[in-house]
Specification:
With 435 residues, the chain is an alpha/beta fold. It contains twelve helices and 13 strands. The protein is 38% helix and 21% strand. A five-stranded mixed beta barrel has the order 1-2-3-5-4. A five-stranded parallel beta sheet has the order 7-6-8-9-10, sandwiched between helices. It has a three-stranded antiparallel beta sheet with strand order 11-12-13, with no helix packed on it.
Length: 435
């Protein structure tokens, strides 16, 4: 027979109301409610205590806060509840990562068997060590340009093979597969399971990332994990993993936790998805939407082509209705008349020009004849010149015995100069020239 006995603090007698009214056995077990009542009665005897730690989770639901407080030196954590009336008296800027001190009292929720601490007061004690380390790392990576949008790679429109890093048999894996296949049934996955929290998270995730990055068939890599408190998501803010993601040649999508979760991986990755489901929707196009877009484009193309053809037909009909095309012979007749007129005008112009130039030639010929020495010779004059062609203008140029050539209208006469003068003492009379 097994007897249930609550833990007894040394030096103190167990409270009477904390001991079950009777011993339990397989044949006579106690009820769950009686057991929870006994535990709650024992816990209610504990007093309040001030505790120091770092807020790792802060979830606001229905005006109340449900969170976790982590020890500053170890991984020990406690759950706490902060009711709305108490929350109104606290600072408004409390958030995960804050270093606080809180007055807590143990509380056991009988209906759910849930053990937590109720907070009656809480105040800041400075920035938590964990948050401070993350902020320093964030500033360092930002200074190195790892958050720069210019270095982020684009996600392919339709990845043929998606590399997926997630926990084995996790809801995140099911969400990514289901939503991606609903949007594009032919999509393929290469999934590598890795620890998504704890000491094995970072090395296993880095190993899976390198393996998928080296696979030439993988077009995009998704690192996915379901929700969790910030403490369990610390692995996705590890510097080793962040630098491995930045060095990868394949685009990386971060799909960690829920919308309010924001590990540093979200800033380094090429694309941040708020949830694994959102990641599937953002990297895989919807086949229905794409078909609708194609149909819309085909409809627009058909409309444009129809309008263009109709417009061209209307223009062609307009051209055909013009007189020049409806009766092309009229255009030829009009052009024939113009050609005849131009030809006639050209012939008249040429004839007038020929007549004018003919008269000018006659006038020039008459002037030339009037000025020609030949005309003078024809009237009986002669030209005397020496043998070398020098014309005689003075008798002294031809002394006695000089050979002289006399040119008349018809031919030349060779003679010899005598050199005697007439007895009268003067030159012989010059012949009379007729006008």
């Amino acid at each position: 027979m097994t007897t249930f006995r609550p833990e007894v603090v040394p030096g103190q007698a167990p409270p009477a109301d904390s001991v079950p009214p009777r011993e339990s056995s397989p044949d006579a077990p106690t009820s769950v409610a009686r057991l929870n009542d006994t535990i709650r009665g024992f816990i209610d005897k504990w007093g309040s205590v001030w505790v120091e730690g770092e807020i790792t989770s802060w979830n606001l639901r229905g005006g109340n806060v449900f969170g976790r407080l982590k020890d500053l030196a170890t991984d020990a954590t406690i759950s706490f509840r902060l009711w709305s009336k108490t929350l109104q008296r606290l600072p408004d800027d409390l958030k995960p990562g804050d270093h606080v001190v809180a007055c807590v009292k143990a509380d056991y929720f009988v209906k759910a068997g849930d053990f937590s601490f109720t907070v009656s007061a809480m105040r800041h004690m400075g920035l938590g060590d964990q948050l401070e380390r993350l902020e320093r790392l964030r500033a360092q990576l930002r200074a190195e340009g790892l958050f720069d949008p210019a270095r982020k790679r684009g996600i392919p429109f339709l990845p043929h093979c998606i590399g997926l890093i997630t926990g084995e048999r996790s809801d995140a894996e099911k969400d990514v597969h289901r939503n991606a296949e609903l949007r594009w049934p032919q999509v393929r996955f290469r999934t590598i399971h890795a620890a998504v929290q704890g000491d094995r998270c970072v090395p296993e995730t880095i190993g899976a990332l390198k393996a998928l990055d080296a696979d030439p068939e993988v077009d995009v890599i998704v690192i996915a994990r379901g929700g969790g408190d910030p403490q369990t998501l610390l692995g996705f803010s590890d510097e080793r993993l962040l630098r491995a993601v930045a060095a990868a040649s394949t685009p990386v999508v971060s799909a960690i936790g829920h919308e309010n979760d924001h590990p540093l991986l979200d800033d380094v990755a090429d694309l941040r998805a708020s949830t694994p489901t959102d990641a599937a929707k953002r990297i895989v196009p919807d086949v229905g939407e794409q078909r609708a877009i194609v149909q819309q484009l085909r409809s627009r193309l058909t409309t444009r082509l129809t309008q263009r053809v109709s417009h061209d037909i209307a223009q062609l009909e307009q051209l055909r209705s013009r007189p020049s095309l409806r009766e092309p012979e009229s255009l030829l007749e009009r052009r024939t008349q113009e050609v005849w007129l131009l030809s006639s005008r050209g012939r008249d112009t040429v004839e007038r020009r020929n007549d004018r130039e003919g008269r000018r030639i006659v006038e020039l010929r008459a002037s030339l004849r009037a000025l020609s020495p030949g005309a003078t010779l024809a009237r009986g004059y002669a030209i005397a010149h020496l043998g070398d062609g020098v014309i005689l203008r003075d008798a002294a140029q031809a002394p006695a015995g000089t050979a002289v050539v006399v040119t008349v209208d018809r031919g030349s006469i060779a003679t010899v100069s005598r050199g005697e003068l007439a007895e009268s003492g003067g030159p012989p009379a010059a012949p009379r020239l007729e006008p």
